[in-house]
Amino acid sequence: MPYGYPYGGYGYPWGAIPKEEEIVMLEEQRRYLTSELDGVTKRLEELRK
Length: 49
What we know:
Blueprint: H1 19-48
């Protein structure tokens, strides 16, 4: 999994991740990716001025 995410994908190496933990993991990933996308969008706007 990119970005150095500690879970190594959508499950633990020893089995399926519990639903609640997967929700938390995906919410964290969404926040991170949204932040990265906002930074890219802002830089593109600056370059296009």
